[in-house]
Amino acid sequence: MKLYGYFRSSATYRVRIALNLKGIVWEPVVVDLRATVQAQRSPEFRNLNPEGLIPVLIDGDRTFTQSLAIIEYLEETHPEPALLPRAPVERAQVRALALAIACDISPLNNSGVLNYLRSPLGLDGPTVNAWYAHWIARGFEALEERSRRLSGDGRHLYGSTVTLADVCLVPQMFNARRFNCDVTPYPTLRAICAHLESLPAFAQAAPEVQPDAAPA
Ligand SMILES: N[C@@H](CCC(=O)N[C@@H](CS)C(=O)NCC(=O)O)C(=O)O
After folding, report:
1. Residue located nearest, by CA, to atom 15 of ligand 1
2. Could you identify the atom of ligand 1 that is nearest to the CA of residue 107?
């Protein structure tokens, strides 16, 4: 499989983790998102994904977009290890956690949104950072509360095995730290991420070890 992505794209990071967890061999194709490059807007890439967003997964002659749809495709084609519990109630709870991150927090902090706030809207750096931190805090406060209720062992967001919720949490925590958000108010989320980041599938998916990682 080929994964079109960028090292610090959190949506790509989710898919890297899922591919690694399932032991799938994959090849990265770099789509440079830097404002000076914007490879996602090139006609070649838009031909692949008219939304101009990464990640894009290629499996044979099929093209898949949207990180959660990609991960559910992987879940259905490579069921082990399962990232969703079997029971419908539990599946819904795990999906709700994943969607809280991928649909409620992440889109507000996407690079395209932040760039638009800067130009043409003209917001300065500190104001854009305040926007970012606000939506992280609002989302993480709720997730911290939910994790206290739903984590089975303080090492996973839901229950005591790795789920789709964990696959979404770690990249969002990476992003929050990258933007210098204060994550001290979320000790449960930090403990969960510390455990998950130590697992090989997560460690090998980390932005800093990707071939396109830029020096800090
Ligand atoms: N809902 C999409 C979001 C994808 C997304 O926002 N990707 C970002 C990188 S994390 C992107 O391609 N940004 C480029 C842009 O906005 O121009 C998914 O989960 O795949």
Report:
1. 112
2. 6
What is the 109 CA–ligand 1 centroid distance (Å)? 10
- DSSP letter, residue 157: S
Nearest to 113 by CA among 182, 33, 47, 177: 33
Pairing of strands 27-30, 62-65: unpaired
Backbone Cα Rg of the chain: 17
**What's the gap in Å between 54 CA and the centre of ligand 1?**
5
Q: What are the structure tokens assigned to 202, written together?
A: 């997560």
Indicate whether residue 109 lines ligand 1 (CB < 6 A).
Answer: no
As given in the structure block, the two tokens for residue 215 are: 């020096």
Q: Is the CB of 49 under 6 A from ligand 1?
A: no
Residue minimizing CA distance to atom 12 of ligand 1: 53
Between CA 105 and CA 133 the distance in angstroms is: 11
Residue 215 is given by DSSP the state P
155-195: per-residue pLDDT in tens? 999 999 999 999 999 999 999 999 999 999 999 999 999 99
pLDDT at 216: 56
pLDDT at 150 over 80: yes
Å from CA of 146 to ligand 1 middle: 26
CA atoms within 13 A on the CB side of 181: 27
Q: What is the largest CA-CA distance in the chain?
A: 48
Q: Is the peptide bond before 211 cis (omega within 30 degrees of 0)?
A: no
The 10s digit of each residue's pLDDT in 18-50 is 999 999 999 999 999 998 899 999 999 999 999
